[in-house]
Each structure stands twice: as structure tokens, then as C-alpha cells.
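hiii, so i know i said id send this last week but things got crazy w the move. better late than never?? heres the sequnce for the chain we talked about at the cafe, plus the structure i predicted for it. fair warning i was half asleep when i ran it
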Amino acid sequence: MKNLLSYLSLMLVSVLTITGCKKMDSTYEEHVVPGGIVYAGKANKAKAQSGKNRVRISWPRGTDPNVTKARISWNNFQDSVELDIPANADTISYTIENLEEKSYSFIIYTFDNKGNKSVPVELITAAYGESYINSLLNRGIVTNKLNAAGNIVNITWAGSDIANGAFATEVMYTNNAGVSVTKVVPSAVSATTITDFKPGGSYKFRTLFRPDSLSIDVFETPYTNNQEFF
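okay and structure toks below
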């Protein structure tokens, strides 16, 4: 009986020891694989944001304190940039400028202070330019009425090009105090009333676009000048 109790006690100690070791090792298992290869902590939760002939890449600093550098590559590794990663940074962010208008695949590697490299992180997005801008259509007007006193304008809008990223229309006019005013009309709004319009004046409008929800830039159509009411 005494031998059985001793055996059970030894087994319990062994199980607790193994459990504790596994808990400690879990901190490092992301960076070590069988065979002794060590990987630097990768750029977890990275995102790529489109823009006008540019793209912004960013990700949280991460938990690996030894990571000191990152390399972002694109165009099948023909182009790349290297970044220092400060130990006290919360977010790593870099904007790649002067990009040709097209889709891109960006590959991120991080490196620790011993030269170990992370597994790659791939991000897909696009840079937008003149081709996209030239495809944008200004929102149309269905009715455009001026009251008898000439100081109130009622505009009924046509549908907006939401499929292409339209999210608002800017209306610019001069009020009855002689001050230039800009109203921003969301694409979901179908009518606008200007109650302080300067009699005898006119207004102009343009539509604002984002090609996708993460875009860092806003694109606009040229202004359309309106001088007739109907």
C-alpha cells in the first residue's frame, strides 16, 4: 500500500511539472518549430490600405521583444523597403508612395536581433490613379427649385454611384451674408434644402469617392456649376 501511494504521488508531481513546462513553453512555441529553426515574431494583424498612387502598410508592434527590423516587398520582390522597429512602438506603419495604378501583393518579413526571419505575411490591395478618377461620375440632379424670394433652394438628387465608392456629395454656395459655405450630403440622402442662399447666386457640387472602406484617400469628381433652376 505504501509503495502504491508513493507511486501515485510521484505520478502527480510529474503531471504537474509537465503541465507547468507546457505553459511556459507556449510563450515561445510561435517562434520555435521542430528541428531547431527559430522564427522571429511575424507581423500579426497587418493591413494594407489603398490610396492615390500609394498604399499604407501597418500592423501592431507584436509581443516578440527581439524583433528589430521589417522588410516589405512587392512586384515579385523586385521592390522592397526595410524599416527599423523601435522597442517602444505600438504600431508599425509605412506608406509606399509613387505606385503605378494596379493591384499589388505585399510580403512582410520581420527580423529579430539575431537575424532570424519570420514566416511571411501577404497582403493584397491596390493603388488607384487617373484611370479610376476618370471613371467617376458626378451625382445628378432630378429637380432644382428656387423659391420666389430667391433665398431657398431645394435639390432632389439622382442616385449616387455607390458601386464605384461614392459616399457623399459636396455642395458649395454663397450664403446671404456673403460667406462661402460647403454642405456635405451623404449618398443615402436624396434631398437637400439650402435656407440661406444668396439671391441671384449659384452653387456648384462634386461627388466624393473611396474605392474601398480602408482607403486613406478621398477622390473627387470635378465641380459641376449650377446656374439654372427647374
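btw Helices lie at 2-25, 130-134. thought thatd interest u
miss u guys!!
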